[in-house]
Amino acid sequence: MVPELPEVEALAQHLRDHAVGRTVARVDVASMSVLKTASPPWTELHGRPVTGAVRRGKFLDLDCDGLHLVCHLARAGWLRWVDELSPVPPKPGRGPIALRVHLGGPGFDLTEAGTQKKLAVWVVSAPDEVPGIARLGPDAVDVDRDALATILAGRSERIKTLLTDQSALAGIGNAYSDEILHAAKVSPFATAGRLDDAAVERLHASMREILRDAVQRALRQDAARLKAEKRSGLRVHGRTGLPCPVCGDVVREVSFADRSMQYCATCQTGGRPLADRRLSRLLK
């Protein structure tokens, strides 16, 4: 399950609790394709103390005394903390480990499952040297109602698209956008700039409540349980065919760009199922 704002925030907190104050003894790169920068080299991290760890949208930023190890976990990436790392470097091209950071006994692995390798790591002097961070919009968990209205004003895309556009709002992905829209009783296909004041009010309230609640739940879990905790808190996303917990109608699915999304027709679209245009094209 794709890490989004709450899970990345919890991983950052885990690193603040366990990595800050330690020194980077060694970095092992098992997959060179994961590195998106060549200068400075990752070996410049060796011997540097870890002085901070923060979340930037869905990016994780480990500050090593002014040199930043930034990662984006993409769809199948994860950070696995190990209290006692093996001193033997992981074998290149073998298994899910892409990069390992030794912190004098403990440390962590950046791993990626599946065949689509999109996990990305940068070593930079400043976080905004990472193109995705430089383009980030305001953090979704901090946006107030008026700021959200300003972001929506004049936008012609579907609200589902805007919520997951990191340059508009940072941190929300496919799962939490489904949850936010369901709680706000807004169709994922609604035009962002045409939402009335009441819909904007509901959207902001649901965004704030769902993200803050998810962050609090995630912070109470250790890193190994974060994915399971996320699944357990979802009401519509990933629940196609199950009853809506609000009205009892069946949760439906529709293809959208390169992903699928879930929604409740009774709660969100006046009882009308949304047309799956990708399926319609296949049936022609």
UniProtKB/TrEMBL annotation:
CDD domains from the UniProt entry: BaFpgNei_N_1 (cd08973)
UniProt KW keywords? DNA damage, DNA repair, DNA-binding, Glycosidase, Hydrolase, Lyase, Metal-binding, Multifunctional enzyme, Zinc, Zinc-finger
> What is this protein's name?
Formamidopyrimidine-DNA glycosylase
Q: Which residues form the FPG-type domain?
A: 235-269
Keyword Disulfide bond appears in the UniProt entry: no
Query: Record's superkingdom?
Result: Bacteria
Question: Where does this protein come from, organism-wise?
Answer: Saccharopolyspora thermophila
Cofactors per UniProt?
Zn(2+)
